C-alpha cells in the first residue's frame, strides 16, 4: 500500500468520521430507549397500513433485485465485451428492437432490470439498447405475461395488448434516446476494483456493491410508496373511474405511486373493476416502467440527471401508447 494511502486511514480514524457501524449502533440504542413510544405509534391503524405496504413492496422486489444483481455481476465479470458486438446489430437503431425483444426471455422485474442495464452500458452496449431492455424486460417476460393471463382469465386481449404496448414504448424510448439523449446524463457509480483478482472474487465484490447501492434506493422508493398509500383516500378512485379521461390519468399516476412489482400488478389491476379495461392497461404498462422505487433506483444506478429526464418522458409515451393500444385491442 502506498505511504499516502497508509497515512489516510489513521487520519480518518482519528478524525472521528462516522461509519455504517456507528450509525447502526446509534439506531439500535435509540430503538431501545424509545421502544415504548415507538410501540404506541406502530399500533396506530395508519402506521400498520404503512408498515404492511412497505414490507410488501420489499418482499416482492428483493428477490428480483437479487436476481438482477447476480445477472449484472455475471455480465460484468464473465461476459466479454466482444459478445455484445456479435449479439446486437452494429447500428444502434437496429439494436434497440433486438434488445427490447430480448426482455421476453428473461424473467424478472424492474428492480432487477436497472442494475442489468447499468452493467450492459459498462460492457459497451449502446445506452439506447440497454434502456430499451430496461423498459421491456419487466413487462414482457413470460412470468409477467402468465400472471396477466391468470388475472384476466376471460380477456386474452389484455395479455396481447400489454405485450405489444410495452414493446412499443421500449422501442420508442430507445429511439428517442438516440435522437435526444446525451451521454453525460448517465453517471454510473464507481464499481469495485475488479482488476488483478480472480473471477470468483470479482463476481462477489460486484454483487455486494450493487446490492448495497441499489438496495438503498429500493428502500427509499418503498417508503415513498407506502406513504402515498396511506395518504391517498380510496373514495377518490371511485370518483375518477366515472370519467374516461381522468380514469386513464388516475391509474397511470396510481401505478407510479403504488410501486407494485410487475409480477403482481396484474392482480391489482384486475381488482380495480370500476375502471375500464383501457385504463387498467395503462396501469399495467406504466407501472413496470415508471414508479417511485424504479425512479429512485435509476437515480442511484444511472444518475439523477438521467432519471429526472427519462422517467417523465417514459410516463408520457407509456400513457399515450397504452391508451391507443387499449382503444384498438380491447
Summarize the main sheet. Answer: none
Weakly predicted, low-confidence segments: 1-16
Q: Report the total helices.
A: 17
Shape: globular
Percent in helix: over 70%
Q: Would you tell me the overall average pLDDT?
A: 78
Strand content: under 5%
Helix-strand category: mainly alpha
Tell me the Rg in angstroms.
Answer: 22 Å
The rounded distance between the terminal residues' Cα atoms is: 65 Å
The total of beta strands comes to: 0
H-E order: HHHHHHHHHHHHHHHHH
Note down, in words, how this protein is organized.
The protein is an all-alpha fold and 330 residues long. The chain has 17 helices and no strands. The protein has helices spanning 3-15, 20-33, 35-42, 45-78, 81-87, 92-102, 110-122, 127-140, 142-151, 156-180, 199-231, 235-241, 244-258, 265-271, 277-286, 292-302, 304-329. The longest helix has 34 residues, at 45-78. The chain is globular. The chain starts with a helix and ends with a helix. 44% of the residues are buried. Residues 1-16 have low confidence and may be disordered.
Short summary:
With 330 residues, the protein is an all-alpha fold. The protein is built from 17 helices and no strands. Helix 9 (142-151) packs parallel to helix 14 (265-271) and helix 16 crosses helix 17 (304-329).
Amino acid at each position: 500500500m502506498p505511504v499516502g494511502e497508509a497515512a489516510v486511514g489513521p487520519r480518518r480514524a482519528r478524525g472521528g468520521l462516522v461509519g455504517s457501524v456507528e450509525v447502526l449502533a446509534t439506531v439500535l440504542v435509540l430503538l431501545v430507549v424509545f421502544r415504548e413510544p415507538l410501540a404506541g405509534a406502530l399500533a396506530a391503524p395508519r402506521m400498520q397500513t404503512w408498515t404492511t405496504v412497505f414490507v410488501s413492496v420489499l418482499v416482492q422486489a428483493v428477490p428480483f433485485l437479487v436476481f438482477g444483481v447476480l445477472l449484472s455481476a455475471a455480465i460484468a465479470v464473465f461476459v466479454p465485451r466482444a459478445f455484445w458486438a456479435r449479439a446486437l446489430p452494429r447500428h444502434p437503431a437496429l439494436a434497440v428492437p433486438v434488445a427490447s425483444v430480448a426482455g421476453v426471455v428473461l424473467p424478472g422485474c424492474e428492480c432487477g432490470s436497472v442494475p442489468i442495464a447499468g452493467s450492459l452500458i459498462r460492457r459497451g452496449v449502446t445506452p439506447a439498447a440497454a434502456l430499451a431492455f430496461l423498459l421491456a424486460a419487466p413487462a414482457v417476460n413470460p412470468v409477467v405475461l402468465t400472471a396477466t393471463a391468470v388475472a384476466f382469465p376471460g380477456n386474452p386481449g389484455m395479455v396481447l395488448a400489454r405485450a405489444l404496448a410495452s414493446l412499443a414504448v421500449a422501442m420508442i424510448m430507445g429511439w428517442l434516446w438516440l435522437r435526444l439523449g446525451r451521454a453525460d446524463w448517465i453517471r454510473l457509480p464507481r464499481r469495485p476494483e475488479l482488476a488483478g483478482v480472480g473471477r470468483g472474487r470479482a463476481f462477489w465484490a460486484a454483487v455486494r456493491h450493487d446490492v448495497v447501492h441499489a438496495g438503498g434506493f429500493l428502500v427509499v422508493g418503498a417508503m415513498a410508496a407506502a406513504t402515498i398509500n396511506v395518504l391517498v383516500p380510496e373514495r377518490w378512485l371511485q370518483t375518477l373511474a366515472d370519467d374516461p379521461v381522468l380514469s386513464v390519468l388516475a391509474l397511470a399516476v396510481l401505478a407510479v405511486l403504488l410501486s407494485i412489482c410487475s409480477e403482481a400488478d396484474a392482480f391489482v389491476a384486475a381488482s380495480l373493476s370500476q375502471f375500464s379495461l383501457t385504463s387498467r392497461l395503462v396501469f399495467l404498462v406504466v407501472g413496470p416502467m415508471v414508479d417511485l422505487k424504479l425512479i429512485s433506483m435509476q437515480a442511484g444506478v444511472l444518475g439523477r440527471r438521467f432519471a429526472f429526464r427519462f422517467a417523465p418522458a417514459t410516463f408520457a409515451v407509456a400513457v399515450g401508447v397504452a391508451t391507443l393500444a387499449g382503444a384498438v385491442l380491447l
